[in-house]
Write a structure and sequence with these properties.
Structural class: alpha+beta
Distance between the termini: 30 Å
Largest sheet: 4 strands, antiparallel
Strand content: 25-35%
CATH architecture: 2-Layer Sandwich
Radius of gyration: 11 Å
Strand order of the largest sheet: 1-4-2-3
Shape: globular
Oligomer: single chain
Number of helices: 3
Order of helices and strands: EHEEHEH
């Protein structure tokens, strides 16, 4: 399992549009990808579950990737989240 801690820089956090783009990016990988915020976690491949986390700007999230392409997925998604814009 590969894990990354990321601070969400996007001024509006992960609202619908950036979350939708993140889900599309996550679906490019075979690995199971989970985002953890506090006690809650959700699949990065499910827009509804991701939206339920309520991730806001400057939230510190944990990205967990497990599978055949986990290192590649973690690196790509970390970079994607750090560059997110509305």
């Amino acid at each position: 399992m590969t894990e990354e801690t990321i601070v969400v820089p996007n001024p509006t956090g992960l609202h619908t549009r950036p979350a939708k783009n993140l889900v599309a990016e996550a679906k490019k990988f075979e690995s199971d990808i989970t985002i953890v915020l506090g006690e809650k976690e959700a699949s990065a491949k499910s827009l509804l579950k991701l939206m339920k986390l309520g991730i806001s700007q400057n939230a510190s999230i944990q990205l967990k990737c497990e599978g055949s392409d986990e290192a590649e997925a973690a690196a790509a998604l970390k970079s994607f989240i750090e560059k997110l814009e509305d």
